[in-house]
Design a protein that fits this description.
- Helix content is 42%, strand content 20%.
- The chain has 215 residues and is α/β, with parallel strands linked by helices.
- The strands form 3 sheets. Strands 2-1-3-4-5 form a 5-stranded parallel beta sheet, sandwiched between helices. A 4-stranded antiparallel beta sheet has the order 6-7-8-9, with helices on one face. The protein has a 3-stranded antiparallel beta sheet with strand order 10-12-11.
- The longest helix has 15 residues.
- The relative contact order is 0.10.
Length: 215
């Protein structure tokens, strides 16, 4: 996630909060820098008040290059400013000051619209591992593995996205909702590895999340 914010205090507070939610975040303080580094972001939070370029122009420049989800975050509250922001390519427009919970809800909504998830298959197989969502059953090399409800949900989530890395933030939200701590995921991953008999079934991708391995 890219945070484009010229106010150092606002930037640091926002980056810190997003990282606590499990996001991998980097930042830029100018429009020129944002245009240069945005291509590795999954989502851009763009302040429209920048020291070198108008945020509307930055938004247009980014949108001309790619379709990365983008939320304009600004103190400009006039209706015309909002219209211009959306017409320049922003997917949403949020006026300062705002609450972090509202921002997260808007991020989730924008990401759902931009990248809708395909429904996972009811049964997923990977080598000797078979996961049946309807029966909530895990079979490894012909042997049934007893898992807790959350362990199963975590394993099935990874198996349903077996070709990609699932971000820690997505795991926490989809498996635990609003009731979690950062150690919760690590504890359940460790337990799953023990029950599956190999640490290779769940691979840690440092700074991002986890993916299903080959066992």
């Amino acid at each position: 996630m890219l945070v484009v914010e010229s106010n150092v205090s606002d930037k640091e507070n926002l980056v810190t909060w997003l990282r606590r939610q499990g996001h991998d975040v980097y930042s830029a303080e100018t429009g020129t820098e944002a245009i240069r580094v945005h291509d590795s972001a999954d989502l851009v939070l763009l302040d429209l008040e920048l020291p070198d370029l108008d945020g509307i122009e930055v938004c247009r420049a980014i949108r001309a290059k790619c379709d990365v989800p983008l939320i304009a975050v600004t103190a400009r509250r006039a209706e015309l400013d909002c219209v211009l922001g959306l017409q320049s390519g922003a997917d949403d427009y949020l006026v300062k000051p705002y609450g972090f919970r509202e921002l997260m809800a808007r991020i989730d909504a924008v990401m759902r619209r931009a990248r809708p998830r395909a429904a996972p298959a009811p049964t997923v197989s990977r080598g000797s591992l078979r996961i049946d969502a309807k029966l909530r059953e895990v079979i490894l090399a012909g042997r049934r593995i007893e898992l807790t409800r959350k362990e199963f949900d975590l394993l099935y989530l990874l198996a349903s996205h077996s070709e990609t890395v699932v971000p820690r933030s997505a795991i926490m939200k989809q498996v635990w909702g609003d009731s979690w701590s950062r150690r919760t995921v690590d504890t359940h991953v460790s337990s799953l590895r023990n029950k599956l008999g190999s640490g290779q079934w769940i691979v840690t991708v440092r700074g991002v999340g986890f993916r299903l391995g080959e066992g």
